[in-house]
Amino acid sequence: MTELFHYTDCGLDYVYLANGYTVHETAHGEGVSIKDARMLHAFIALAVIAQPRALQGQDVRFLRGMMRLSQEALAKVLRQQRGSVARWEAEPTKDIPGAADSALRMFYALKAGGHDIAVKIVDLLQQMDEQQHGPHDLLLRNDGAWRAAA
Question: Any long-range contacts for 129-136 (C-beta under 8 Å, 24+ apart)?
């Protein structure tokens, strides 16, 4: 039997790989390479939303990361406060509330399936996040002097 690899780099403490990875020595010790990690993460996300148990904080963080949303943006999607999302993520093995669980599963499924409205919502929230949390004080050097970018 093949030895299982406990794949914690995805942020989930319950994922084990039977294959699709290579262990190798590096100058800093043992290293692991994952074959097509992006596809693996997409598969894990679909498995997460299809599992029969309640979503937990670690699942929320993983799915939010897959959608590249801030806590604030995900809170808007779920009609929650940002602090609620932060609390869920801070308690990785605690179940999240049922309504938020259902909403997150459905929204992720729509987004992953390429549903136009879900994709547009995620794109809009990402743009809002970039505007709100992006570099606010971009400085440029021009003609030998520093100035704020327009």
Answer: 129/69, 129/70, 129/72, 129/73, 132/72, 133/70
